[in-house]
Amino acid sequence: MTDTRTKRADARRNYDRLLTEARAAFAERGTDASLEEIARSAGVGIGTLYRHFPNRHAMMNAVFQESLAALLERSRELAGAEQPCTALVEWLRALITHAGEYRGLARALLSASHDRNSALSACSVPLRDAGERLLSRAQETGSVRADVSIDDLMQLTNAIALAAEQDPKDPELADRLLTLTLRGLRAENRPC
After folding, report:
1. I want to staple 161 with a disulfide (CB 3.0 to 4.6 A). Which of 23, 49, 69, 100 is the partner?
2. What global pTM score does this model have?
3. Rounded to an integer, what distance in angstroms lies between the CA atom of residue 24 and that of residue 155?
4. Which value, to the nearest 10 degrees, does the dihedral of the CA atoms of residues 83, 86, 91, 94 take?
5. HEC assignment per residue over the chain
6. Mean pLDDT of 3-16
7. Minimal CA–CA distance to 153: which of 132, 174, 125, 176?
């Protein structure tokens, strides 16, 4: 149950405390942080946590709604850009940055992309749709190959974020990997 409008005041407070503690735990220890510790830090029992969030992905979905909204807003801003390919690239960079914000998020997003029943689908489906619009526009201009799919790009961005997570000492790794990937996106003799 994640609709805060219909909750009692105490349930809403518990929900808000759980989200606050989950954000902090995910930021400090990654998305594999102990749910029991999150509940304890929020001052509630594990049963209360599971009443609000039936599983880890449901909690992650709730934690990432603010970032999701920002990414979707950015895709709307980029939708009318003069250079559709540049807009797509900028959005892909934003996706990689988002997926790299919390250790374990890229791996979870990769797994959720194959599981439409995952609570994280509530994050990945709107992102996929937003990316599809940007990709289609870039393909219509001939800047991006017609055989590139948004599913390919979503997998690649999550894989790049996961690779960068594995080598945190190299802050430029994600951008280098994206640059290499983009070379494969371009239509023949067209800059992106």
Report:
1. 100
2. 0.79
3. 27
4. -140
5. CCCHHHCCHHHHHHHHHHHHHHHHHHHHHCCCCCHHHHHHHHCCCHHHHHHHCCCHHHHHHHHCHHHHHHHHHHHHHHCCCCCHHHHHHHHHHHHHHHHCCCCCHHHHHHHHCCCCCCCCHHHHHHHHHHHHHHHHHHHHCCCECCCCCHHHHHHHHHHHHHHHHHCCCCCCHHHHHHHHHHHHHECCCCCC
6. 78
7. 132
Residue recorded with tokens 């979905």: 61
**Type of residue found at 60:** M
Name the residue among 113, 77, 68 with its Cα closest to residue 95. 68
What span, in angstroms and rounded, lies between the C-alpha atoms of 10 and 60?
Answer: 22
CA distance 83 to 89: 10
Rounded alpha-carbon distances, angstroms, from residue 50 to 44, 98, 102, 115, 150: 11, 26, 22, 21, 33
Check: CB of residue 68 under 8 Å from CB of residue 120.
Answer: no
With beta carbons less than 8 A apart as the criterion, state whether 31 and 103 touch. Answer: yes
**Whole-number Cα distances in Å, 53 to 3, 60, 63, 126, 160:** 11, 9, 11, 20, 29
Please classify residue 59 by burial: count the beta carbons closer than 10 Å to its beta carbon, then call 0-12 exposed, 13-18 middle and 19+ buried.
buried
Q: What is the pLDDT of residues 137-162, one digit of tens each?
A: 999 999 999 999 999 998 899 889 98
**pLDDT on residue 3:** 53
